Amino acid sequence: MRIDKYLKVTRIIKRRTVANEACGQGRVLLNGKPAKPGAAVSAGDVIEIVFGDTPRRYRVKEVADHVPKGDVKNLYEEL
After folding, report:
1. In whole angstroms, how far apart are CA 18 and each of 15, 27, 53, 64?
2. Which CATH architecture group holds 3-78?
3. Are 12 and 23 in contact (CB under 8 A)?
């Protein structure tokens, strides 16, 4: 799955266009490297997002296309 779509599905970033822009500006790292919006995400990957002064890191547990809001936390863990 594309990283911009994964960020939207997991609700880490609310809109896919915002996720796409963040990737394009180099604010999203996938396994320590800048991620383009189309970069593939798989289980075990580490995503780091820098907004403002606080970087946030997440480990991908699972990839799914559609998830109910209550089950989103099963897709990733915050590091």
Report:
1. 5, 11, 18, 20
2. Roll (3.10)
3. no
Residue 32 pLDDT level (bands cut at 50, 70, 90)? very high
Supply the pTM of this predicted model. 0.90
- Is the pLDDT at 54 greater than 90, yes or no? no
Give residue limits of the domains in the chain.
3-78
Structure tokens at 31: 């396994």
- Give just the sign of the alpha carbon dihedral 62, 53, 37, 7: positive
User: What is the residue-wise DSSP string for 34-70?
Assistant: E--TT-B--TT-EEEEEETTEEEEEEE----S---GG
